[in-house]
């Protein structure tokens, strides 16, 4: 049973490339939860965190951390060890979702379509010869391709490659963020993000948000107003809108996620849907996709945040079963 006005500890900051995004998300969620009557504390991820959790004894911890440590399952592991309830997926599900190649393998096994891909470590290029490996990749997968870090967020290190000559530069960019590259076939179509929200009655998909940019949907386009135009709800026929909702819910279930998630999808011109990746800790900034989906559903963001906290507060305290990886 959750407290009438839960005591919530929001974790924001961290040391990843996405620290500023995390801080902005944390501030926004904290302000909204306070408006619902919650007592909210905000804390960074530092050497004092464990002592702070023990001393404050929050009803719920909400990790709003992006990038490594926040989304690789390690903070969730610590919170489970502390025996506290927290928003988001358990550590194993979070870890599986953080690795895009593992994520694609799991959702594909569940029957969700995803573009063909390979994953290659940086060390392999030194051992086999970069030019030879890249020629083989292009020959097998074709062009265009998307090169991205296998573990990472906010489109950092992601490059759309349309010619063989651009592959080397794309790999260098990718390897500056992660030692493993995921190279997948680029899919033409409408890019949409679909947020999934858990409720006491089950999972529900919020309206899809359509993303239209003046170039790649990169870090700058995501967080600096003006580069990107959003349509919420997405401009999709009703049957396609249902299909993208079903795809996002299927991915959420296949990955054993919990209170919320956001799946990035491509709708092909024929209406078929391709899964790209999932985010277990969606950004909550002014330009983030989850808040836009909430607004498109004609719901109060503060009320949705409060419902997430209440659901997390009612989640049993138990270690996550080793069911994924």
TrEMBL record:
Mg(2+) 2 binds at residues 277, 279. The keyword RNA-binding does not apply. Its main location: cytoplasm. The active site is at residues 18, 154, 288. Mg(2+) 1 binds at residues 264, 277. It comes from the Bacteria. Keywords: ATP-binding, Cell shape, Cell wall biogenesis/degradation, Cytoplasm, Ligase, Magnesium, Manganese, Metal-binding, Nucleotide-binding, Peptidoglycan synthesis. It catalyses: 2 D-alanine + ATP = D-alanyl-D-alanine + ADP + phosphate + H(+). One of its GO terms (biological process) is cell wall organization. InterPro entries: ATP-grasp, ATP_grasp_subdomain_1, D-Ala_lig_Van_CS, D_ala_D_ala, Dala_Dala_lig_C, PreATP-grasp_dom_sf. Pathway: Cell wall biogenesis; peptidoglycan biosynthesis. GO terms for cellular component: cytoplasm. The keyword rRNA processing does not apply. It is found in: Cytoplasm. Residues 104-310 form the ATP-grasp domain. Its cofactor is Mg(2+); Mn(2+). GO terms for molecular function: ATP binding; D-alanine-D-alanine ligase activity; metal ion binding. HAMAP family: Dala_Dala_lig. Cell wall formation. PANTHER family: D-ALANINE--D-ALANINE LIGASE, D-ALANINE--D-ALANINE LIGASE B. Belongs to the D-alanine--D-alanine ligase family. This is D-alanine--D-alanine ligase. It comes from Flavimobilis marinus.
């Amino acid at each position: 049973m959750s407290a009438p006005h839960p005591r919530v500890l929001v974790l924001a900051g961290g040391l990843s490339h996405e620290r500023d995004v995390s801080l902005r998300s944390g501030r926004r969620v904290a302000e909204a939860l306070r408006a619902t009557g919650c007592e909210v504390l905000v804390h960074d991820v530092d050497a004092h965190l464990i002592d702070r959790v023990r001393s404050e004894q929050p009803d719920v911890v909400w990790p709003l951390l992006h990038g490594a440590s926040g989304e690789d399952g390690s903070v969730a592991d610590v919170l489970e060890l502390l025996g506290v309830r927290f928003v988001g997926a358990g550590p194993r599900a979070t870890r599986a979702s953080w690795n895009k190649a593992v994520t694609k393998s799991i959702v594909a096994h569940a029957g969700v379509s995803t573009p063909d891909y390979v994953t290659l470590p940086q060390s392999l290029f030194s051992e086999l010869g970069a030019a030879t490996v890249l020629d083989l990749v292009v020959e097998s997968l074709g062009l265009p391709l998307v090169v991205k870090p296998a573990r990472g967020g906010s489109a950092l290190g992601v490059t759309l490659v349309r010619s063989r000559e651009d592959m080397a530069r794309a790999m260098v960019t990718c390897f500056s963020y992660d030692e493993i590259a995921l190279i997948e076939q680029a899919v033409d179509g409408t890019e949409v993000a679909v947020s999934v929200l858990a409720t006491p009655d089950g999972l529900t998909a919020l309206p899809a948000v359509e993303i239209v940019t003046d170039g790649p949907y990169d870090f700058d386009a995501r967080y600096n107003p003006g580069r990107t135009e959003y349509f919420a709800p997405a401009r999709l026929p009703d049957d396609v809108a249902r299909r993208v909702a079903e795809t996002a819910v299927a991915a959420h279930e296949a990955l054993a996620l919990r209170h919320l998630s956001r799946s990035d999808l491509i709708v092909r011109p024929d209406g078929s849907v391709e899964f790209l990746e999932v985010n277990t800790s969606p950004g909550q900034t002014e330009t983030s996709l989850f808040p836009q989906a909430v607004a498109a559903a004609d719901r109060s963001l503060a009320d949705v945040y409060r419902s997430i906290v209440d659901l997390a507060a009612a989640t049993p305290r138990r270690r996550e079963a080793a069911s994924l990886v």
